[in-house]
Amino acid sequence: MGNSFQIKWIFIVIFSLFAQVFILRDVALANVAFCFIYLWIIIKAPIHTPMIYLILAGFFIGWIVDIFYNTHGIHSLATVFIAFLRPTFFKVLTPVNGYDERSSVSLSEMKALWFFPYIFVMLLSHHLILFLVESADATLLMYSLLRAFASAILGTLVFGMLELFNQKN
Amino acid sequence: MNQLFQFLIRQRIILLFILLELINVWSIFKYDDFQHVIYLNTTNRWAASLLATSREIKTYHHLGEVNAELALENSRLRQEIFKLSAIKQPESKVPYFVSSAMLNRYAPVASKVIDQSTQMSQNYLTIDKGLVDGIKPGMAVISSTGVVGKVMSCTSNLSLIVSVLHIENNVSAKLKSTGELGYIKWPGIQTEVVEMMDVSKYKKVLKGDTIVTSDYNVVFPPNIPIGIVAKVGLEKDETFHNIKVMLLTNFSTLKYVYVIKNHLLGQQLKLETSKPKPE
Description:
Low-confidence stretches of chain B: none
Strand content of chain A: under 5%
Oligomer: heterodimer
Mean pLDDT of chain A: 83
Shape of chain A: globular
CATH architecture of chain B: Beta Barrel
């Protein structure tokens, strides 16, 4: 928890929000798969981050994204929701040795069998809420589900690739 | 009471979670009222200015495409102008009808300049349209501001154009205000200045008058602007005015030109060559 740690996190927050708002806002793969890289902040937060910070961070980051997406609260709703569910996922997906010596969510510490399901479940629950609330229409239900699944798969791939840059040998 | 506080403190995370989600749900369902209060959307001043900046950066990369589109649109508009000016009734008592062949005589093709020179005494341009696009030697080339030259030779995809800045390339021209005829010739020195020849010294020439292509031009459509009279001089014992003309086309920054397809060019040339030669 040194100084460089905090600077790294400030950098991650600014970078992911900028990338989300200015670049990824206009990007959609086949009009079904969207990439929400700002969730990196919630997903990668250290395991022992106090819940209260995590939920507040989810709220404000979600609001910033909402402002630029004109979605008035939907991103914030979904982000606060996954921030709240995160400890539950941790409990369900316990790694073999428990969380005792581990502090950060990373591929190298957690191994692929834990890391990818975790990211996929986080993204999927976020996207389900996001797309279902956004469409708010029973006729679009299947399309929203398709979007949520496609985006979650794309997101898992993107986060996996970003994680490769984060490997410590 | 104490127990209630203890309960609240123990459950503070869930309570915070519920509170924040309620704010969000309220905002989602009542966003119209909410928007008017604090403008938390892209109409927000900061958000809008940030988005505008990013939009500017993105459009800068598309300037090339935008230019090409505009050049295409201009060529379409030019065709309309040629049609409309051909349909215009001349001042005559006899009824005048214009045939559809004359109406659709000129068709401009927008093309990009890929190479050009201005420093030589004989200057040429290369453009990215050729025989495939219907371009043939002898066609006129103009820019959005004025004349450029005429097509000299074509390959299937490229064409070579003799610039007006070529000491042997003369263009038949007239003074716009008086209709006085003459021709334009480049003396080969400055890239902005050409000379107008063959204007009798007994005719009035005003500084600032526009010079356009004449109606009797084989290559160019009539009334394409060439330049502005910059200086009128008269030397002793000369029969013609010495007129310096500032060109309207800026050759050094030329990017897009229009090749004017003349559908009647063949017929016109045939008629001209069938004239009896003077004995």
